[in-house]
Amino acid sequence: MGKDVDIRGRGVSACCAAHLLAQQGFSVCLEQASRSGPARLLLSGQTQLLFREIFGDPQLFEAAPRIRCRVVAWGAEAPPVELPHSGVVVSEQELLDHLWQKIEIPGDVSLQRETTDAGWTILSAALPSQAWESRAFGDRKACTRAVRLVAQARHDCCWIESLPDGWLFLLPYSEGRALLISTGYSPASLIEQSRLIAAQITELEAAGEPAIQFPAYPQTLCELSGMRWLACGSAAMRFDPLCGEGAGHAVREGLLAAAVIRGAARGYSSDTLLAHYNQRLMQGFLRHLQVCLPFYQSGGQSDFWQAEASALQTGIRWMEARLEGETPPLYRLSGYQLEPIAGN
Fold first, then answer.
1. CA 220 to CA 315: how far, in whole Å?
2. What totals of helices (H) and strands (E) does the chain contain, helices first?
3. pLDDT at 112 (0 to 100)
4. What is the model's pLDDT at position 129?
5. Pick from 166, 212, 210: which is nearest to 189 by CA?
6. What's the pLDDT score for residue 33?
7. What distance in Å separates the CA atoms of residue 318 and residue 221, rounded to the nearest whole number?
8. What is the pLDDT at residue 245?
9. Which residue of 34, 73, 105, 203 is 20 to 30 Å from 300, comparing CA positions?
10. Read out DSSP for 57-112?
11. What are 340's strand-pairing partners?
């Protein structure tokens, strides 16, 4: 088995996979691909630890702004509740620029070689020229824009609020500035419905970070891998930013994709490795849908909330059917590689 790997995309998942494979002597070839999502990420303590361990950088995120609590007003007329949190806010692009510098591989290369028995392809960002069958569970879009905070707003706290026609998420990222994520049928009007988050904002910034729109509903490819190819990151699955922490999922998917390729190079069955990969990703996606559902069932009674909750229920049933009859896993992760489970 050869050790050539083509990676299409330069997001979090691609970066982690490329780093782990390059460390093991694989020849990695990159192709840029378009991608969209929030300009800034809120990373949990567990995801921070994964980044530090994979890239061997214990100081990573030391200077990043800290989020120590969440203030949540969820449901009609629900009072705000303050909950502890342990997260950091990072610019996605700055994080990726920093991490790619740690990886000793060639620069952007247009992929010309065909995927053969000698190599693998990792799809970590969907390419416009490729059509992949997928399933989406919802219709909600998100819009992000920079805002200025009132003088008394806390900078170590984020705010989450459900509204009749959607929800708002406010994430401070520097002194006096925050990222506002609005999701619903009419994102522009949500701030007018707000009681909690509108009180933290003094103005919507016309300049600064550009507004970004992206899908906010869970979505997955129907097939996550095939003959010497694997999909991960935004090419494989998209998560609701309310519950998903997509960066954490992307790190784990990139890690597992690299482990599958390393396992095949060690002589393990490609078929069983890919079956394990599919099962783990689908199980994670099902858990995400199950976590999202109670929020959309309790967020409000409008058509928006009912339609999105119904879509999530459809997704849960679909994923459960896909996983029905799955055999116990044949592999377990040991460090960053897959090892067969004794007795299987």
1. 10
2. 7, 19
3. 45
4. 46
5. 166
6. 67
7. 13
8. 81
9. 203
10. -TTTTTTSPEEEEEEEE-STTPPPEEEEEEEEEEEHHHHHHHHHTT--S-------
11. 331
Q: Among candidates 24, 222, 74, 62, which has minimal Cα distance to 134?
A: 222
How high is the pLDDT of residue 126? 65
Which residue's structure tokens are 């970004």?
212
pLDDT along the chain (344 residues), means of 10: 82 94 90 68 94 95 95 94 95 92 64 56 72 88 91 94 95 92 81 92 70 88 94 93 88 97 95 96 97 96 95 98 91 93 73
Helix pair angle (12-23, 92-100), 10° resolution: 10
Alpha-carbon span 102 to 154, nearest angstrom: 34
Rounded (to 5) percent helix, strand, coil in the chain: 35, 30, 35
Burial of 129 (0-12, 13-18, 19+ CB in 10 A): exposed
Token pair in block for residue 192:
């007018």
- DSSP annotation of 235: G
Reply yes or no on domain 4-63+92-136+218-340 having CATH 3.50.50.60: yes
Those residues with Cβ within 8 angstroms of residue 310's Cβ, 6 or more apart along the chain or in another chain: none
Cα-trace Rg, the chain: 21
